[in-house]
UniProtKB/TrEMBL annotation:
SUPFAM superfamilies: Acetyl-CoA synthetase-like. Keywords: Ligase. Residues 360-443 form the AMP-binding enzyme C-terminal domain. It comes from the Bacteria. This is AMP-fatty acid ligase. Residues 20-298 form the AMP-dependent synthetase/ligase domain. InterPro entries: AMP-bd_C, AMP-bd_C_sf, AMP-binding_CS, AMP-dep_synth/lig_dom, ANL_N_sf. Gene3D superfamilies: 3.30.300.30, N-terminal domain of ligase-like. It holds the Pfam family AMP-binding. The keyword Transcription does not apply.
Amino acid sequence: MTYSGTAFSSLSHLLLEKREDTVVAFGSEGDITWAQFVADVSHYTQLLHQTPQQNVALCARDSYLFTVGLLALFHAGKTIILPGNYQPEALEELSSQFDLLLCDDAITPLRNTETQLITTGHNSSPFVFAALSPESIRLILFTSGSSGTPKAIHKTLDQLSVEVEILQSLWGEQIPHSRIESTVSHQHIYGLLFRVLWPLCAGNPFARHSLEFPEQITHHANQDTVLVSSPALLKRLTEEHKPTKLRCIFSSGGPLPFAAANHAEELFSYRPIEVFGSTETGGIAYRQQMTEQTPWSLFPKVEAELNHENCLRLRSAHIDPTGWYQTADECEFVSKNQFVLKGRTDRIIKVEEKRVSLVEVEKRVDQLDYVQECAVIPMQQAERLILATAIVLTESGKTKLAELGKGKFWLLLRNELRRWLEPIAVPRSFRVVKEIPLNSQGKRQVAELEKLFQ
């Protein structure tokens, strides 16, 4: 079987291509060929054409099944909802946004929403695919918002297509005939683009399942493999010392420490390409850290300027075709197309390179029966960033704390919060206070909060 050699295709014409026995995806179950992929997409496109629901949520752990569902939804003309995580309560909270859940068997079905499982191996009569209209196909990605509720980010297939073409123009010549391994989820914009859509258009087969541990990365590494990863996992490679080659490494989700970039080059003979962006903007800039002061270079066709707070304003067809988009990223330009980051000016932070809204975490803690009020702050603990929470207890909370003791009570709170939050967003440290410290303007005294945990 051929693992590449395929000409680059646009997303709108992808299923009109004849790719014969090229491989689309691989995993422990074996390789999936182009013919099987087209048959599976055909099956679900026909099925979705017969369903009246227009707004469809797509969730899957398996990247191949996710891709089958995604392409079928494109060709069925549905509006696609991509939830940010799989936690049952978080999915339930979003259920008013969709009428049907399309998922694999790793996802818990919802109580009051129709669920359709995605599988492979279908041999139904082929669907006659037509070219897609990229401007009319809409996706809605949900991510942490500053208001504390999941924020809906609207994208068109046209915006995604423009960015895939940018990625191909930047790095397509570096990675032909490659296999794509990944540590990041396709449910988020970075994984969606780098793990699924770009490889699909370029004819590079992708892994069905994520790599989750550092030793898996080194085990799967070879000179024909491209790794799509995050700083969180690349920083954990410190115990790996046996060199092996990778064709290319991408990292996104936050700045990669310079020491981790150096160690990755020692291990894999390749210095990671870092991509800077967000769900709202997609990718906007990139760098390979040759020094600790290496600036970020803007993507082609991205215009940027600073507002009065020195925060980036951006304009590009894949960000917002109608005008400028204002970010909360404070920057300094060192040339016309290069800048250095100074930090964020809002309350959305990155913990282990995952985006976390402090407002949302506070909202989830506040809704617990045992908590009257709380304040959540990020704290550095050893070499990692954690969330620390000061809480004012209700009477039932005080009773429960006396009954269980601190250790078991903290465990109870964390277990309750996991119904709503991803593990990385669950606070690791708690302190009970009589009241949240405020200044004369009624604003929280962060310095006083930090002292509670020192």
